[in-house]
Design brief:
Chain lengths: ~270, ~350
């Protein structure tokens, strides 16, 4: 028995937390396979709501929203990863420069600012400069709040790579660029992949900021689900939610194992 | 030495880290020359600036003053990748994602050599460091000694004019270290590349080098052959750092003719070689093995002895309480001539005492 398990009340508290966290998820997952239209009474096992998601009357809206979500998540995660990688290289490899501490704070600030504040501020900003709201505004907003999430695993990885590797590369007649491309980036790759996947998942399930900055008629999966729920909760929502949960779990698991893999190598 | 024989010339090199009140002087007017095809060591305690000097030669640190010349060419303006110098890093710096053969071939390929030519060179290097069977392995699959050999092979493969070695043996155990010392010397002779070997281990430096520069606190303390440095240390730091020695405050008895005659603790008068002392007092050094412990001479008491196989260390005390360390070879049948508490007598042969400049 581990030392922490010896504290009185450890087991009940743990179970309580787990129940509060996961029971709703479990209910959604189980009821997505419910044949009945009721969301509270169990009929029998069925995949009818999954079929409804893909071919029902609302399927067109959900498909379009899913495509938007996917495109935005890939584009935002890619851009955020490129920016975060450059930022990590500057913060950890460029020595000291003026404004370094301020840069570090600015990179990580979106993690601290309440999301609703960012959402309102971004909306006001786009309105003020007369930027037409649409897919592009969603994308820009997502890139910004994805940067710190991509930055953290990339910087953590880079911190574990000794400066000797770049010196050894230059000692072997590599230029700075070759040292980066042939030595540093391959070594950073697990961190970069983990950062990309984390940013991807953060973008995929963002609701608040997206809801503020999206244009009329443009939906992402979370806003489409929210829109559908406003009409009343149907079991097809549970099916979509279960599918999204599956994607999230897969991506986060991949991200976790990629960062593990990297640490093992060095 | 003719100018053409000088591989590296360190000319008045200064290095200052930081600016303003927080600045620290890492190197202070260091000068020496390394001959072509020489095995040279840079010796000093940790923090003395020897690694900084090595990094300046490699191009990873800039100069604050002075010059570094490679066969007469100024190096200061060349980036590390343009210098025909390779480094064996202290922690080897093997790339975890490259195999042994890929890593060794790295330098050649960066220099734009063809695949076939580079592969032939890799095979040659693998033979040189006896790692033929390990070509496909990744660094994580190699022992410490094997990693060390890979680091050496990858630095030698581009055939640099000078090879810098930054305490390359410090992570190995004693047996392996001794074996690698011999191998390094053989490889140096075989390749004809100038080796500059940085170490804090005085025994290692003395065992390997033709010539050494001894450094301390960012300054060059002495420069010369291992024998010169051991036998004629210029100052107290060198005498203390290279081997063991006894220091004595000595009164100058006479300072004319052939040498200086001094009187040390207990009234022992000896002739001391080295620089002429200015005043009436000076500091001298006498190595433990230069004393003879017998029955004639300066009376002393044996405090303690340490048996070390080839020789025995005696800690003795003169009549006025001055402690002296004496080392006697263990000839057959002569061991333990004295026991702790015994009375004995010290004598010193000619040329044993050395006057220290500072």
């Amino acid at each position: 028995m581990s030392p922490i398990a010896r504290y009185p009340g450890f087991l009940p508290v743990t179970i309580l937390c787990l129940v509060i966290l996961y029971a709703p998820l479990l209910v959604v997952m189980v009821y997505s396979f419910n044949e009945s239209t009721s969301i509270t009474r169990w009929g029998s096992f069925s995949l009818v709501w999954y079929a409804e998601v893909f071919s029902g009357p609302e399927s067109a809206i959900f498909k379009a929203a899913a495509w938007n979500s996917l495109i935005i998540a890939i584009a935002a995660a890619t851009s955020a990863t490129v920016i975060a990688t450059s930022a990590a290289l500057a913060m950890l490899r460029a020595g000291t420069f003026r404004g370094k501490t301020a840069s570090f704070a600015l990179i990580n600030l979106p993690l601290m600012v309440p999301e609703i504040v960012t959402a309102v501020a971004t909306l006001i900003f786009f309105s003020a400069i007369g930027f037409q709201r649409g897919l592009l505004t969603i994308l820009l907003a997502h890139i910004v709040f994805c940067i710190p999430f991509a930055y953290l695993p990339i910087a953590a990885r880079l911190q574990g790579i000794e400066a000797h590797f770049e010196e050894a590369a230059m000692d072997l007649y590599a230029t700075r660029w070759q040292a980066l491309r042939l030595v540093l980036l391959p070594l950073m790759l697990p961190g970069i992949m983990a950062g990309f996947l984390l940013a991807f998942i953060i973008s995929l399930d963002d609701f608040i900021i997206t809801n503020f900055v999206k244009g009329a008629g443009i939906e992402t999966l979370p806003t489409a689900i929210f829109g559908a729920v406003k009409q009343g909760i149907k079991p097809n929502i549970m099916a979509i939610s279960t599918l999204m949960l599956l994607v999230s779990v897969l991506v986060v698991t991949a991200s976790y194992f990629l960062s593990k893999l990297g640490n093992h190598n060095s | 030495m003719k100018r053409s024989e000088i591989a590296v010339e360190i000319a008045g090199v200064d290095k200052v880290f930081g600016t303003g009140p927080g600045q620290s002087v890492a190197l202070d007017n260091i000068s020496f020359t390394v001959a072509d095809n020489e095995f040279f060591t840079l010796l000093g305690p940790s923090g003395c600036g020897k690694t900084t000097l090595l990094r300046i030669m490699a191009g990873f640190e800039s100069l604050s003053g002075g010059d570094v010349l490679l066969f007469g060419t100024r190096l200061a303006d060349l980036p590390p990748n343009k210098r025909p110098i390779n480094t064996v890093f202290q922690n080897y710096a093997l790339f975890p994602h490259l195999s042994v053969a890929e890593y060794i071939g790295c330098g050649r390929r960066m220099l734009g050599q063809g695949r076939a030519e580079s592969e032939a060179r890799v095979a040659e290097m693998l033979r040189l460091v006896q790692l033929d069977a390990m070509a496909g392995r990744k660094p994580a699959q190699l022992s410490g000694g094997q990693q060390q050999r890979v680091a050496l092979a990858r630095a030698l493969a581009p055939a640099p004019k000078v090879l810098l070695l930054d305490e390359p043996l410090s992570a190995l155990d004693l047996k392996l270290r001794q074996q690698m010392r011999i191998e390094l010397q053989q490889i140096q002779e075989e390749t004809g590349i100038t080796f500059i070997f940085v170490t804090h281990d005085q025994e290692e430096a003395v065992a390997m080098a033709v010539r050494s520069a001894v450094m301390s606190a960012g300054r060059r303390q002495q420069f010369g052959s291992a024998e010169e440095i051991y036998e004629t240390p210029r100052n107290r730091f060198v005498a203390d750092f290279i081997g063991e020695t006894n220091f004595f405050e000595a009164a100058v008895v006479s300072n004319t003719g052939a040498g200086t005659r001094v009187r040390i603790a207990g009234g022992l008068e000896v002739d001391a070689a080295g620089p002429r002392p200015d005043g009436a007092k000076t500091m001298i050094s006498i190595r433990p093995e230069r004393f003879d412990l017998g029955v004639e001479g300066l009376p002393c008491t044996v405090d303690k002895l340490v048996y070390l196989g080839t020789d025995t260390h005696y800690h003795v005390r003169l009549s006025d309480g001055t402690p002296v360390m004496v080392r006697a070879q263990n000839h057959l049948g002569a061991a333990h001539a004295f026991a702790p508490g015994d009375s004995a007598a010290l004598s010193v042969g000619p040329g044993a005492a050395r006057v220290l400049a500072d």
